[in-house]
Amino acid sequence: MGGVLNILPVQRSASGVKEDSAGAGKYDALRRVFDLALLQAAYGKGAERHANGQPFDRQPMMEISRMIGGPTGCFYQAMKKVQEASRMEPEAAKRELLGAINYLAGAYLLLEEKDQT
User: Fold this and answer.
1) 108 neighbors 5 (Cβ within 8 angstroms)
2) Contacts made by residues 106-111, CB under 8 angstroms, sequence distance 24+
3) What is the model's pLDDT at position 60?
4) Nearest Cα to 105, choosing from 69, 63, 67, 61?
5) What sign for the dihedral angle of Cα 105, 106, 110, 111?
6) Residue 1 has pLDDT above 50, yes or no
7) What pTM was estimated for this model as a whole?
8) Burial degree of 82 (CB within 10 A; 0-12, 13-18, 19+)
9) Which residues of 41-77 are buried (b: 16+ CB within 10 A; e: fewer)?
10) pLDDT tens-digit profile of 55-114?
11) CA 18, CA 25: separation in Å to the nearest integer?
């Protein structure tokens, strides 16, 4: 990982997991949302409709984006989900926003791939 992530103060715990020594516990709410997005992608609507048994980085959203040369498709899908969420009841809107987070994660991964080429 490059960029700003290289400057974060991290240390390894006894389990070997990196921990942010300066912000431990301060970002639990954010982690909870990311965990919910992960669960949706791995076991919810994302897995049911899009995964086809493939890992996240080989699912259609990623492969189609590669075919068109970058993350634009993921950006579009994320924006569409946010726009749709703005017109929904809270529970449905939260589900759409988790989907948007997953599309943005895909875009991030595609940008990382471009950095490596």
Assistant:
1) no
2) 106/56, 106/57, 106/61, 106/62, 106/65, 106/71, 106/74, 107/65, 107/71, 107/74, 107/75, 107/78, 108/71, 109/56, 109/57, 109/62, 110/62, 110/65, 110/66, 110/70, 110/71, 110/74, 111/70, 111/71
3) 92
4) 61
5) negative
6) no
7) 0.79
8) middle
9) beebebbeeebeeeebeebebbeebeeeeebebbbeb
10) 999 999 999 999 999 999 999 999 999 999 999 999 999 999 999 999 999 999 999 999
11) 13
Q: Which residue has the tokens 């749709």?
A: 84
Tokens of 83: 């726009």
The mean-pLDDT minimum among 1-5, 38-42, 63-67 falls in 1-5
* CA 95 – CA 89 distance, rounded (Å): 10
Average pLDDT over residues 6-12: 55
Higher pLDDT, 37 or 19: 37
Q: How many residues does the chain have?
A: 117
